[in-house]
Design brief:
By secondary structure, this protein is of the alpha/beta class. The chain folds into two domains: about 5-210, Rossmann fold (3-Layer(aba) Sandwich); about 215-425, Rossmann fold, CATH 3.40.50. About 35% of the residues lie in helices and about 25% in strands. The strands form three sheets. An eight-stranded mixed sheet has the order 9-10-12-11-13-14-15-16, with helices on both faces. Helix 5 (about 135-145) links the parallel strand 6 and strand 7. Helix 4 packs across helix 7, helix 8 crosses helix 13 (about 405-425) and helix 10 crosses helix 11 (about 325-335). It is elongated.
């Protein structure tokens, strides 16, 4: 036997992949059996772990014989030669695909729950399985990774049949197998323990990987000029950037809505700093809540403080602002030398930053509820005044506080997509 079990195989494969440790990588396990292997690889490389869900399309009367595979986002790969030889009709193919698509979507929901996709844009995707036979499933996985923006795809597994690279050379940038034994009949013959991996085990591996990657999650004191402000800093391992939150009027670092958005960012490897823009004494004076210049200066001071922290200074920084906090974020982003990579406004008041809007160079996403009519009008007017890259996302059915079921989740996903795109090391700010 080549491997004791999938854990043994994963640890040995991780050693072979050590050369990728310095790159921005995401490890993608093929469920179910590939996930325990991928977990060991992700842990060794200190990289985020996710699943890439694909399903084999088996010939109707020979289900173990693959005539293709499907993946998330409508990806389909067919083996025309197998389909021709077995004389599978269009109707039979459609029936198999419909059945497998239903199962694929069930698994994707089961494995991820409320966890978003790990962002692949600008990163290397390492696709891992416990072994390869026909290659159709791996081919679909490679295409899904590229469709999600991976700049480089590595297909890696403990065992594969001889000559496997010739079949997949065009699908991945690098192909790695520890063993290519002959004769090769099935992946399981090369494991002493090849027992089935359950759905619950897959979920457990993903949760364990997420928990293990949090390096810093603690209360901090931010030096903001003449005052000290209390904050909460969370920095995942190998962060894809860091986002400072500017809270709206009457809110604080404990805001449940902003903490929800921050949690979505954390799962995707983005760090956050949630902090109070005003001291407890300053909050008693309501005029301070609408003093956008003061709030923006505090945000700029916090940005300088963050850049002075060990191991954080080189990270690209974004701002997330809600209500009046969005005005402060835009005002601060216009400050010369602030060098902010992206701004997201949720239910914001960009009109309060009108004197500075034309000077903002950071790509800016404005998120507004469709039922927040007054603020929606203010955001459309502000967008017309801005000269940087901007986008306005209107969330159907949402009011100002995004209290309607599902609306905050949609807003958080939109913010995540925007930050991932613009915080990537190779991203360039539009002007």
């Amino acid at each position: 036997m080549a491997f004791v079990n999938r854990v043994d195989a994963g640890r040995r494969l991780a050693e072979r992949l050590r050369h990728l440790g310095g790159e921005p990588v995401v490890v993608l396990g093929l469920p179910r059996g590939g996930v325990p292997v991928a977990f060991e690889v992700a842990r060794a490389l200190d990289a985020p772990l996710d699943v890439i869900v694909v399903r084999k399309l088996g010939v109707p009367d020979q289900p173990e014989l693959a005539m293709g595979a499907i993946g998330e986002d409508g990806i389909r790969v067919l083996n025309d030669q197998v389909i021709s030889i077995t004389r599978v009709s269009e109707q039979e193919l459609a029936a198999v695909e419909e059945r497998e698509r239903t199962e694929l979507e069930r698994r994707a929901r089961r494995f991820r729950d409320d966890r978003p996709h790990q962002p692949l844009e600008g990163r290397t995707a390492i696709i891992v399985d416990d072994g390869i036979a026909t290659g159709s499933t791996a081919r679909a996985a490679c295409q899904v990774a590229r469709a999600h923006g991976a700049t480089r795809v590595v297909l890696a597994m403990p065992v594969a049949p001889p000559g496997w690279t010739s079949r997949l050379a065009g699908d991945a940038d690098e192909l790695i197998a520890l063993e290519t034994p002959e004769p090769f009949f099935a992946v399981g013959q090369f494991y002493e323990d090849f027992s089935q991996t359950t759905d619950d085990e897959v979920v457990s591996y993903l949760e364990r990987a997420g928990d293990a990657r949090s390096l810093n999650d603690d209360e901090v004191v931010v030096n903001a000029g003449a005052v000290l402000l209390v904050g909460h800093l969370t920095v995942p391992a190998r962060p894809a950037g860091i986002v400072l939150f500017a809270h709206g009027s009457g809110s604080s670092r404990h805001s449940p809505r902003n903490r929800y958005v921050a949690a979505v960012l954390h799962r995707a490897g983005v760090g956050t700093l949630l902090f109070d823009l005003l001291t407890s004494e300053e909050e008693f004076d309501r005029s301070n809540v609408f003093d956008i210049d003061l709030l923006a200066r505090r945000l700029v001071d916090a940005t300088r403080w963050l850049r002075g922290q060990p191991e954080l200074g080189s990270l690209r920084i974004g701002y997330f602002g809600a209500s009046t906090g969005a005005a402060a974020a835009l005002w601060a982003a216009a400050e010369p030398g602030c060098d902010i990579a992206a701004v997201v406004s949720r239910g914001g008041r960009p009109d309060l930053a009108a004197p500075r809007l034309a000077a903002v160079t950071a790509p800016t996403l404005l998120i507004v509820g469709s039922r927040d009519a007054t603020v929606l009008t203010l955001n459309r007017t502000a967008q017309a005044q801005m000269r940087c890259e901007t986008s306005l996302t209107v969330i159907p059915g949402a009011t100002h506080l995004f209290e309607e079921p599902g609306t905050l989740a949609i807003a958080a996903e939109a913010a995540l997509d925007w930050f991932v795109r613009h915080l990537a090391p190779n991203a360039r700010t539009a002007s």
